[in-house]
Amino acid sequence: MKLVLLLCASVLFIACNNSGKSVKTFCDTTCKTDSFNFKGADRFESRVNISLKNCKPDSITWTHGGMTITRQLPFNDLTNQDVRLNPTAISCIIKDTSYAWLTFNDCMTGRGFLVKLPFNKANNINKFTGALNSFDPKFSLEPDLRAYTDRGSIYVTDINSGNQEVMTFKETYDIDFNNLHQVVDSINITHKRIYVKLLKNGQEVPIEKAIDLK
């Protein structure tokens, strides 16, 4: 009888301890209700706003004082999945009245996203759901550079000049962007060099290329 009671007590102790453990997330997922608002320094006060609903981003709008309309999209059109945002993992660089570069990571999965939002409706929106953002401590990029991968190459853009460099992985890697570090261990990118450490079959695969981004 004592043995049965001890076993039951042990099971309850383990269950209670496990129930107290929380799943580790990329950033704080505490429910945020205030919108994210970004404003440019140009005289037309270019701006980008992200509204939230039920703790998640609901819609995004962008405009400036010289526009007769405000451009708007459901936020999920940019991500194709539900995400959670946190001020520590989102930024928006507004290039006068031309475009805005929105960079963010999903707090639940750590997945990186990159979006180029043109103010002119005649220009297409560019969205990248495999972004390698510097919010991730293992991804180092100079402040005016942005990077993303399509599983076979890495693309690096200077957001001031618009110039781009590409480095191929020489093969296609089966990357799950919601679990990126299983394949992409780390990156270090400057205006002169792209360095990526990939993982394949438990082995490190370092790749680098000299570049000249101006």
Describe this structure in words.
The chain has helices at residues 2-19, 76-79; strands at residues 36-39, 47-53, 56-63, 71-74, 90-95, 99-105, 112-118, 126-131, 139-141, 145-149, 153-158, 164-168, 184-189, 193-200, 203-210. It folds into 2 domains: 28-130, no CATH class; 132-214, no CATH class. The chain has 214 residues and is mainly beta. The protein has a 4-stranded antiparallel sheet with strand order 1-2-3-4. Strands 5-6-7-8 form a 4-stranded antiparallel sheet, with no helix packed on it. The protein has 2 helices and 15 strands. It is globular.
Helices and strands in order, then pairings?
Blueprint: H1 2-19, E1 36-39, E2 47-53, E3 56-63, E4 71-74, H2 76-79, E5 90-95, E6 99-105, E7 112-118, E8 126-131, E9 139-141, E10 145-149, E11 153-158, E12 164-168, E13 184-189, E14 193-200, E15 203-210
Parallel strand pairs: 9-13
Antiparallel strand pairs: 1-2, 2-3, 3-4, 5-6, 6-7, 7-8, 10-11, 11-12, 13-14, 14-15
Keywords: Signal
Signal peptide: 1-20
E-strand count:
15
How much beta, percentage-wise? 35-45%
Tally of helical runs: 2
Which overall shape is indicated by the principal axes computed on the Cα atoms? globular
Please sum up the structure shown:
The protein has about 210 residues and is mainly beta. About 10% of the residues lie in helices and about 40% in strands.
Key terms:
single chain; 214 residues; mainly beta; four-stranded antiparallel sheet; 42% strand; disordered N terminus
